[in-house]
Amino acid sequence: MDFHEAFNNLVINEELERAYNEISVEKVVVSKTRGEITVIIKGLSPLKRSHIVSMQSALKGQIFTSKEQTVIIEERYDLSDYLVKNIFEKNKPSILEELNEQGRIYYNILNKSKIDFDDTAIYIENEDNFIIREKLKEISAWLELIFLKRYNKEVSIHLKFREISEKEKEEKDSFTIEEILATRPQAEQTSKPKANNKPMSEDKGKKAFSAPSGFKKKSIPLDPSVIYGKNFDGASVLLKDITEEQRSLIVRGRILKLDERETKTGRFIISIVITDFTDSITCKIWASPEEKGELKKRLSPGAFIKISADVQMDPFDNELTLSKVEGIKETEDFTVKRIDKSEKKRVELHLHTNMSEMDAVIDPGTLLKTLSAWGHKAVAITDHGVVQGFTNALHAKDKLKMNDFKLIYGVEGYVVDDVSPAVRMDKGQKFTDPAVVFDIETTGFGPKNCRIIEIGAVKVEDGKIVSKFSAFVNPKQSIPEEITKLTSITQEMVINEPEIDIVLPKFLEFCKGCFLVAHNASFDTSFIFENMERLGLKGEFTIADTVTMSRVLLPGLKNYKLDTVAERLGIVLEHHHRAVDDAGCTAEIYIKLCELANERFGNSLLSNFNTKEGFDTETIKKMGTSHIIILAKNDIGRINLYKLVSLSHLTYFQRRPRIPKSLLMKHREGLILGSACEAGELYQAVLRRHGEDEIEALAKFYDYFEIQPLANNSFMIENDRVPDITDKEDLREINRKIVSLGEKYNKPVVATCDAHFLNPEDEIYRKYLLWSKGMKDADRPLPLYLRTTEEMLEEFSYLGKDKAEEVVITNTNLIADMIEIISPVRPDKCAPVIENSDEELRRICYDKAYEIYGEDLPKKVVDRLEHELTSIISNGFAVMYIIAQKLVWKSNEDGYLVGSRGSVGSSFVAFLSGITEVNSLSAHYYCNHCHFVDFDSEEVRSYSGRSGCDMPDKLCPVCGEPLVKDGHDIPFETFLGFNGDKEPDIDLNFSGEYQAKAHAYTEVIFGEGQTFRAGTITGVADKTAYGYVLKYNEEHDNIVMRRSEIERVSLGCIGVRRSTGQHPGGIVVLPLGENINTFTPVQHPANDMSTPIITTHFDYHSIDHNLLKLDILGHDDPTMIRMLEDLTGVNAQGIRLDDEKVLSLFHGLTALEIEAEDLDGYDLGSLGVPEFGTDFVMQMLRETKPQTFSDLVRISGLSHGTDVWTGNAQTLIAEGKCELKTAICTRDDIMIYLIDMGLEPGHAFKIMESVRKGKGLTPEWEQEMTEHNVPDWYIWSCKKIKYMFPKAHAAAYVMMGFRIAYFKVYHPLAYYSAFFSIRAKAFDYGLFCFGKEKLLSVIKEIKKVEKRHRNKKDEDVLGDAYIVLEMYARGFEFMPIDIYRAKPKYFQIIDNKIMPALVSIEGLGDKAAYALYEAAKKGKFLSKDDLKQRAKGTTQTAIDKMTELGIINELPNSSQISLFDFMG
Question: How many Å apart are CA 300 and CA 1189, to the nearest integer?
Fold first, then answer.
């Protein structure tokens, strides 16, 4: 808002009014506790200090007139593009004036200092004495803050103190007593009003943004707990109570995370997020590189600290932050931890880890730490339907070295009862015997508390209805409104009818001598039997259920509701949900089913319906599921469990992975079955009061029964669909009944938690997950946390002390002791076998070596080849090479090059066997004609460490033929380790078009069913979790949280399993004779039942020690080269890698014959060249000016590393400490250099491995490197690196990229056609193909938005637009799309122009483009309607767009012929 508009009643003089004409008000912050009103302003150029002071006074006197309030104006300008020197000198008077307000001594010190500048730094020099040193530290910190916050310019202040002689000291007293006293704010010395008297700070305190007096690192601190700044004491404030800016308070908390950001000045901003579990907050401090290391050590996540600081509104994060930190010190862990004090410990047998999809948040590592602290000896992992938590738990156990702890591997499965008898208590009856088919209507679902309101029945004999029974029943309770809507039975209809004690005996008399038939009989019979028990009536019946009978005889129905079955059998149901009508309909269904059964089974026995084989797959997918706990007792059980999990995902998945009981019974060996939670069969049978025979059958099926805390099931109390549960006593009664069943059937009953989170306070994380799934009851309290033994004993105390101990401790340990210690994965390595692979590999390599180097192989070739073959064959890796060789040769045979990835190009054997094009030998010449070889001439040796293609061309001294230049000088050790025993990882880049064929070819090699896609698990990412919390807060009356608190609570959701997927190219190979379920279950990716792809159920990393994984990846480069070869007839493998015109692309535009102004300022020709076309890499090219292929390889290594270029090699090259050729660019550089410097080779390899993984150097290694004259800059560089690229990978990538660049120079139309077809991300015909001016307007429009605010689509459009702009600049044009000539995906060269593909039309996706192409091939379109009808998938939007673009203007809208068409 404009300043004058914000304070329109302010009366000020003309000069002050003019000064604020270009000023806006960003916001006004009021701090009641500090009595301050801060007006934050923004402008184009800084105001004079006098104008700030005057305006503060005016605002105080006229607007904010309270005596208790101070007015402060904070300035904000964006001067980031200005030189530091210009900013300082222009604003020096105001800076000095502001310092003078703090104290004359500050003014004098800075004013008398010598000040110099460079691009990002200010150098202040003054005399060396104690006062000047201390005050300049404060001034420098204040200046850094002023520049950052006020001017948006990062600077570093460097102080220099010069010595003065004793004589000068005596003659010159720099500062008088008056000046020293003047360090107090002037407002304290006079009666003048304050004018932003903030000693050395932009904000209200004597300290600057972060400890302006400097980080004081004492060798022997007075208080060893002090980490930063000064010692302090006092009570801490709860973070939730911090709601506004405050000065000097103390907080405590646990560190959640620590981030560092290096500023342009070389200093670091360290951000610490702490929580006291009431809220969270961020604390920011500044540190030098030296201070940073010590701070990071002591401020590690998980540590508990106290902080004394101010609370200020951070202008960048726009939230309250701890700043101007006075001190940070260690403190004790103040959290209250639950402990298990019981002498005897329980075992949890029902627990969900974060692999239970979007439903549980328990991290296995944290779980095991907790159980170890509690003294527990075992735990069962029982995730919903999956076993992916097994390997995570095992890894956590191994990491924690909990060798004696027993992990029990199980699953909470979704069981389908496909073997439940259709006929219960069968006594050999036949279809022809008398049967009563009945139905009831009730006031609700619970036989205990609800009542029967109608009984309808018909008697059937010999396939005919012989009599009927119908009666209303007075329930003596209100009929709910929804029941009346369903049944049409009102209270008035039953009020005068007899009660159940009259009706039921009559009904039983009607049933005498008959068996009973009902649809979903368990429900109806539960009410009958409950009322019989209540009335003391006796009776036992055979019961037939027409639902199960229908499933046996009528497979494939969408469901088996009464009306669905009736419709299938042609039976009319007029008044559904009236007992008498439903009974009549069910009777007709029963008669028809008996007729079908007689035909099918050849006899009339009722027992024919009781199948043990289960139902067909589609029927099982439509049946209801119940929960079941399945524990693996031993390794046989583990394999059977994996079989069940595999089949539940591959065959029976429908919304969830289903396990038919018939399947479970076939694979029950080695398994222990538990009855699970309230969603289990047994609990529901007891709750619903099913017949004793049903409960007995279930009791005999399970090995043990479960009961759980009342709170787990208390949701049923409020659930209208569970009317029999009205209070906690009802829940206790259910548990008591289950305990009594255990006693009756001699089955152990165990108390479990069904834990979904570890501690009670963790419930909020699960709420966020459930809410994100749209579950609106997610806020309902459901404390499914892991309880201690004492908590469980207290929970089940209503069973009595002895029984509580039995179910909590004795029986859980009993089950745990029945289970053997097993591993969820096999320990052995099972590589596939290809007969004679050792001999085959050796033969292939030597044949190729002889072909290149002749029969008399050079010693270097033989030595390297034998060294590698010995390592490869002795370690059993030959088969992996042969597999890769077969795949690459097959691809090459089919016309597609294959690029190698990773460090496989380090292997000379890989080169000779055709797996990679990278020859890892040192640079050398050889002659194809006479096999002359030169490895050792002085000229050749001068190319050590470089690529042979960079050497000058030469003729063979023997035969005069041109020599071949080869070799990239890459050590084998990078690939297989220094002892040659490192597991090889052969990654190959196949053409994206060919990838599926390469995958299919693996089955040809190994056999059908022996290969699987490598599975992946997708967990909730940090940004996604953050979004869940935001969504929850927004939909809960916009709960306000600090970002740091959102981050804290979102941490509890991160990593929770969301879905599964597949590695983009990973193929897992199963050796012949092995069963995949001995290693892992299998499934479809993301449980997509429409795909034939089968993946490993475990994340492939969990089993990569067992089974071979091939990385057969899809990549654009081989596809693009294939298209370029097809368009031009040029063999890409024959392209020289030292072509000068191609090399010139990487440092200019001469080869393209255009200027930078033609390309909107781009001054290099590498746009669109793989590896070298991004802004980041192009800037590297400008700074390094590569001249050779070797230089490009080094740049590729730098660009793919992390912290290898930025802030590392870039700085070193700029400072002249190294050149591109001496900088650390790839991981290989380190080992080779250290060996050259005299370090032992194995040790050099070890250092390389540590550095390339970002683990840095040990002090011992640093000392050793120094002793071998390794320069300090090299050691510094090693310590900065987080990840390094292998040279072989870089060389392979650059070879592909260089070839594509060749076509760009020499075959531009082919290049642009291939690029737009394959690599373009957002090519838009309407934006790009209507001339250069239209294109430039598109570019200009996108560039109006700052890069950081652009969306991905705009960035993609911009990237493609510059390639199009380059094409226009080179004089090439597009041909308008002709729908009868255009291809769906590929651009074409026609008449020296490029015709875009159909898919480039906005709104026309891949499928629609192919449909349009196929339709156009069949003939001309009559109209736009005809096009839309024939080209399926072409939307009206796409039709309108094609019309707008002039592509189909000649087509009429409709094919209809009007009378006027025939009139002249």
Answer: 44
